[in-house]
């Protein structure tokens, strides 16, 4: 996949954003093959206006402002290595 986006995970009262963007399939495509990787997240309170804005923006752009943020949490995630068109 050519498109990359920051992954967002809700954890209790915080939203955690992957510090680095990961590959994603295009809107109408389906994951054909995946791999796993360790992903570092930076977390912000859900009630914070900035976290709401970042969440909205994460759907259409890479969140470059997260690149130098501290790591609050690490998790393993699955990301697509190959996508195919579903139509």
UniProtKB/TrEMBL annotation:
<protein>
    <submittedName>
        <fullName>Uncharacterized protein</fullName>
    </submittedName>
</protein>
